[in-house]
Amino acid sequence: MKMKKVLSLLAAGAFAVFAMAGCGSDNGAAPAGDKQAKVLKVGSSIDFPPFEFQDEGQKEYQGFDMDLIRAIGKEMGREVEIQNLGFDGLIPALQGKSVDVVISGMTINDDRKQNVLFSEPYYQSGLTMVVREDEQAIKTFADLKGKKVAVQIGTTSAAEVKKLDGVEVKELNTPADCFMELKAKGVDAVVNDRPVNDYFITKNAAQGVKTLEEKLTAEDYGIAINKDNAELQKEVNAALKKLKENGEYDKIFAKWFGEKK
Questions:
Q1: Which end of the chain is more exposed for a tag (fewer CB within 10 A), N or C?
Q2: What digits encode the pLDDT tens for the residues 221-241?
Q3: Domains of the chain, start order
Q4: CA distance 149 to 144
């Protein structure tokens, strides 16, 4: 899941920022002259840098997903309001119609498709592993047998690691909690989407840990939509297609991950 920018989220004292769950909403401006633009209510779990997070001292939510959904809203002519919710509460909020769409590094899979519609994929990720720098016994996912692994609760990481033979899974609330548990030697490894792991290591000068290159899965992220709203799904897909055609998507991607290779 996924490097976008020089931010110091996990530098000294920044774990608190990662774990911070602001309860308000974050408004995106409606297009100029469209004062009556219909609001697009967006749900997201703002604890997943560099896709969605809230930097210290900043009111607006930041990240790749945040920039993308604001651009999609602008293309649709709608004002964007973002609500910060727990990841495991996102689909229930969508089903209860308290939000219109969800964008939160959410993997498209068959289980979720039973409950929601998805946009066309907007990003491909995969699960990778972080271990302590002095770890020699763990080089691949097969080496996790008999080990303790931290994952974020309610995520694909949690579901996939539970499938591994002989692995003790420890589910925690945020990626920051997982990394803290690894450094405290409460677990032997952390499994997360690759962008989260890479961001932690490269953008925050993390010491004492290393990321392993093997991917456990390859997965597509999509924007989730209420299953009864196929029309909104079409609108979101049309806006996303337009952003890819006019180069705006590539600009947002480059801002957070660098130029596409």
A1: C
A2: 999 999 999 999 999 999 999
A3: 15-123+220-257 (3.40.190.10), 126-218 (3.40.190.10)
A4: 8
